[in-house]
Design brief:
Largest sheet: 3 strands, antiparallel
Number of helices: 1
Helix content: 10-25%
Radius of gyration: 11 Å
Distance between the termini: 19 Å
Order of helices and strands: EEEH
Strand order of the largest sheet: 1-2-3
Oligomer: single chain
Length: 58
């Protein structure tokens, strides 16, 4: 599954679009520093990627 997420990136101090590829059971691959970013807990993009990794809400 591929998804594009938009939001503000604190690392680059600008808004951006991040392309995320995700296969259930595997960690997401994003074209940003997600997984190694200092700000990912506060980042709207990082939070969206974490929700994607958690799976659909029932």
């Amino acid at each position: 599954m591929e998804q594009v997420i938009s939001g503000y990136c604190r690392m680059t101090d600008q808004s951006r679009l991040v392309e995320v590829e995700y296969t259930p059971g595997c960690p997401p691959e994003a074209d940003c520093a997600w997984g190694h970013c200092l700000y990912q807990a506060q980042c709207t993009i990082g939070q969206a990627i974490a929700r994607l990794q958690a799976g659909p809400e029932d």
